[in-house]
Design goal:
10% strand; two-stranded antiparallel ribbon; 6 helices; globular; alpha+beta
């Protein structure tokens, strides 16, 4: 960003990413798999992204494994672009991946072994026997704990309906858990 545009991004010539071609391909592949139409075009879309990154093609896979491959690809390809929260809510896996400790950088050194990676691409350090401290000042752990997060599936899959919207339309009721 040019210094003169800082603080006034709405009146500058910067190109803002709205959607990338890789996201279009991944959305297409996910929709086809979820619709039960996993055909060669799904593999072509997924492998086009992987080829650009120098990754090997994904060959024949069952519908479930193909979906998990797409989910992992979304996690890596779109990291830092604000898509992950919507993805894990859409896939209804938030109570698994959003409950627990939010881990930060290593305190002393890298762990002596790798974390267990599930089919969604989510690392689990505790399952690998890597100590995760609940106290950020614990010097006996290699993982720094930033926060303890909780996700309530009875409430948190839905957003609250804003007060002004409910006032404007009295027929609207608040989503469960947000009363």
């Amino acid at each position: 960003m040019n210094d003169e545009n800082y603080g006034d991004v709405n009146n500058c010539d910067n190109n803002i990413i709205v959607i990338r071609y890789a996201e279009v391909l991944l959305t297409y592949a996910e929709a086809k798999v979820k619709a039960g139409q996993a055909d060669p075009s799904v593999y072509a879309a997924l492998n086009k992204i992987r080829a650009r990154a120098g990754m090997p093609d994904i060959a024949d896979a069952g519908a479930d494994e193909l979906f998990y491959a797409i989910a992992r690809e979304r996690r890596h390809e779109l990291s830092g672009e604000g898509q992950r929260l919507s993805d894990i809510r859409r896939w209804r896996i938030a109570e698994k991946v959003m409950n627990g400790y939010l881990l930060g950088r290593m305190q002393k050194a890298y762990p002596s072994k790798a974390p267990v990676i599930d089919r969604w691409g989510t690392p689990d350090y505790e399952a690998a026997g890597i100590p995760v401290a609940s106290d950020v000042n614990d010097p006996n752990t290699s993982m720094r704990t930033v926060d303890l997060r909780t996700f309530n599936p009875a409430k948190d899959y839905l957003w609250p309906i804003p007060y002004i919207e409910r006032r404007t339309n009295p027929a609207l009721t608040q989503n469960p858990g947000w009363e």
